[in-house]
Amino acid sequence: MSETPEQEPLPPPTTRNVLWRVIQFFMQVLFAVWFRFRASGFENLPEGGALLLVNHQSFLDPLLVGVALRRPVSYLARDGLFRVPVIGWILKNTYVMPIRREAAGMSSIRESIRRLDHGFYVGVFPEGTRTQDGKLGHLKPGFQLICRRANVPIIPVGISGAFEAMPKGSWWIRPHCIRVVYGEPISREQVTELCVKPREEEFLQLIRDRMEDALERAQRACESK
Hints:
It is a single chain. The chain is of the alpha/beta class. It has 8 helices and 8 strands. The chain has a single domain, classed as Glycerol-3-phosphate (1)-acyltransferase. Helix content is 37%, strand content 14%. The longest helix has 24 residues. The N terminus is likely disordered.
C-alpha cells in the first residue's frame, strides 16, 4: 500500500526497537515469576504479516500476546492516551496505532491494513470488550473489513488465566497461572474464499471455532501445569 504525505514511514515489521526489548525483558521476568507464564504454538506464526485475533480477558492481554515473540505486535489504542505524559511516549514507540473515537471506523481499518501489508503482526480483540466470566464472548463483525482487504492469514490466539489474574473491574493483579496458545491458522486462501457476504456466518463460525480451540488448549495447559 503506497504512502501518503500524512502517513509516517513504517519501521521494520520484524525488528523490535530498544524500548520494546527493555519492556519485554522485564515483563518476561515478572510474568514467569507471578504467572508461571508459558506460550506455545509458535510454529503457527508466519514470517510475514498476520492478523492475530485474541480473546479478551484483561488489560494484560496485549502484553501477554507479545511478550514471548521475537517481533513486535501492533495494536490500536484511544488517541487520548497518546497525550498522557510518559504513557503516550511509550505507546508511540511500541508500535501502537492511535484511534480517534469520532473517526474510529475507516481510519483505524486503513492503518491496520497498511501495517499488515507492510508485514506487521496486528492484534485485534474481536469481542470488543473484556469478558465477564472468562469465556469467549460474542464476536463483533467489524474486524471482517480488515480480513477482506488485507491479504494475510489469520492466527487465533487463546489466553487463559488472565481473567483470574485481573478480571474486569479489578485494578489489582493476582498471581495465577497464565497460558497463551497461538492456534491453528486460517490461510489467506481460506480467508479469500469465506470472507464474502454469502458465507459471512460460515466465516465467523470458523473464526470462533479456532479461537475456542486455542482458548481450550490454553486452559488445559494451565490445568496440567
